[in-house]
Amino acid sequence: GYMLGVYVLGLDVGLGGTAFGVLVAFCLAAAYAAMGAAWVIYKTEGELQKKAVRWLRTALVLTALGMAAVSLATPFASPRIFDKWFVWPEML
Questions:
Q1: Can you give the residue range of the structural domain that contains 59?
Q2: Inter-axis angle of helices 79-86 and 47-77, to 10 degrees?
Q3: Is there a domain that residue 74 lies in?
Q4: pLDDT class for 4, splitting at 50, 70, 90?
Q5: How far apart are CA 46 and CA 7, in angstroms?
Q6: Residue 4 near residue 27, CB atoms below 8 Å
Q7: Residues 27-53: pLDDT tens digits?
Q8: Which one, of 42, 48, 78, 20, lies nearest residue 2 by Cα?
Q9: Is 85 within a domain?
Q10: What pTM was estimated for this model as a whole?
């Protein structure tokens, strides 16, 4: 996840690139936790399945918050991406 975040910023390993990479890493870890919890729900029953439902709900909330944070941080972490998203005519 960290390398994905740094790659998105063009392999910038400064403070901003490192912080963005860590944010992406946590978001990706939450997404993988959600997939794992969903698999446990599918493969088990009883008390473990009930616990996995709680794990999945928590992981999905963290994933959604992480996705929102990454989406908000991306244009501010990279001037190139900011220009592509918000400057005319590149935003078309």
A1: 2-78
A2: 90
A3: yes
A4: confident
A5: 42
A6: no
A7: 999 999 999 999 999 999 999 999 999
A8: 20
A9: no
A10: 0.80
